[in-house]
Amino acid sequence: MLNVQQVSFQYPGGMTAIRDVTFSIQPGEFTAIVGGNGSGKSTITKLLSGLLQPDAGSVQLFGNPVKAGKSGVGLVFQNPEDQMVASTVEDEILFSLENQRTAPADMPAIVEDVLQAVRLEGFEMKEPFELSGGQKQRAAIASVLAMKPDLFIFDEATSMLDPTGREEVQALMHQLHHQGTTVLNVTHDMEEALHAERLLAFQHGELAYDGAPAPLLHNTAFLQELELVPPFHVRMLEALKAEEVPLQETYFSEERLVDALCHLRPRT
């Protein structure tokens, strides 16, 4: 579906931000892009959404070059206020539909559907800036959802939210994925990234890892190189191993680690 082929990008002034990156994303995948500061994850996000064009290589969606606003890629920003232009939640969604040249007769039903999908029914006439952080982000998601993108990119979409707002947006990501939407979550939060099916880790503008989450999440030395903090249960597992607590499995989810600890026999 999405094909990134030998992509490189250099900012004016000579700094190479992305160097010879190749990967593809299949329909229905839930992928997370991770990396520390200066890793290139922000630049690759802009290339995938068409906000930047590569200096070399290609970014294609279903065989067509990705261009901003015209490619079937929906992007949710870190700060929802950065993509809000209207005076009400309803007008925010209508603005997206007008840009898509949606038939006016179809708009009311779409507005109703997307507000229901993000659990903001009854918020049509609310001003976006009156909403909580989580509600603002859900309103931003609704405006993108109305465009029916083939690929939904969340660019650090939970990093400015409180725990409640973060949970709301993460739940929406999983809801979209379960409905068959292709989801790409760009994040530095490994607690969040562990819920993806696949991780793409960037370092110094290069793709340093492409695979299942567990092997990377439990490689604490490599995570340190990537300037990423392991999830809490991984740090707990490392501490238990240091104390020679007898645990049988190499990779644990948080739930399985708790279950294993509950079944440990006391030392005699």
UniProtKB/TrEMBL annotation:
GO terms for cellular component: ATP-binding cassette (ABC) transporter complex. This is Energy-coupling factor transport system ATP-binding protein. It comes from Salsuginibacillus halophilus. It is a peripheral membrane protein. Belongs to the ABC transporter superfamily. It is found in: Cell membrane. SUPFAM superfamilies: P-loop containing nucleoside triphosphate hydrolases (SSF52540). The lineage of its organism: Bacteria, Bacillati, Bacillota, Bacilli, Bacillales. Keywords: ATP-binding, Cell membrane, Membrane, Nucleotide-binding, Translocase, Transport.
